[in-house]
Specification:
Number of strands: 12
CATH topology: Ribosomal Protein L22, Chain A
Number of helices: 7
Shape: globular
Bound molecules: coenzyme A, magnesium ion
Radius of gyration: 18 Å
Strand content: 25-35%
Strand order of the largest sheet: 4-5-1-12
Amino acid sequence: MMITIQVLQVPSVVPEAYWDLFLSSVSDERRAQAARFIHQADAYRSVLGEVLTRVTLSELTGLPRKELSFSRNAYGKPRLVQNPKISFNVSHSGDWIALISGGTAELGVDMEKIAPIDLQIAVRFFSTQENTYLSAQPADQQLNTFYRLWTLKESYIKAIGMGLSMPLNSFAILPHAHQHGKHDWRCNQDGQIVRHRFYTHSLDEQHMLAACAVEGELPAQPEVVTLESLCAELT
Ligand code: COA
Ligand code: MG
């Protein structure tokens, strides 16, 4: 089965008629959680992440959207109760939501809004090799590179599904050069290249996206889903 990455841009205000429809499409737990967020943007991201997941997994499984339910492993990674083999993962940050899905190989996705930060904190999170790579980048590209590495590392952690119980500096994700100046990204953990594959993409100037699949081909581009088309799926 093909792996797809879907991205959805969340507006600062979701029209009320849409919002009611979205709220009625998620679990009771999600609805209750959405009501507790202080910032409406957090509620939007959380609810729309589940709506997009339900719509896509319903298409993949042929099961009705409302009959889908989710359980989580000890570290919080969700699974589809009705078909636990189906792989998917969600991320939300800033103005965007991302969903990776398809097949049964473990998948992870991470989206981060790029905000100015003290790059010194990277030294604490990253492995020695990653820090060497980061500090070798031109100064004006270091922030972007930091977020690229961060999202790649998160996508790997999320594919494995054990959260931060896996130390962030226990593995290194770095570009691997090919002929013709092309490269892909590879992860070295405890001296071994793991078989996971990676995808990295600057979604816009302020958002970095990365995805990881233990096997299979990652897509060349994410598929953009609009709020309108998501709403149309629900009616
Ligand atoms: N594995 C995979 N996916 C998980 C997960 C886990 N253990 N736990 C939760 N998720 C899923 C859920 O669907 C969750 O969304 P939901 O709660 O709305 O259903 C979604 O991932 C959240 O992902 P994201 O938006 O990318 O959040 P995050 O980046 O804040 O957190 C965690 C990702 C929870 C998996 C975890 O890795 C974490 O806490 N990271 C901290 C971030 C950090 O310090 N990063 C430094 C990297 S250098
Ligand atoms: Mg994240």
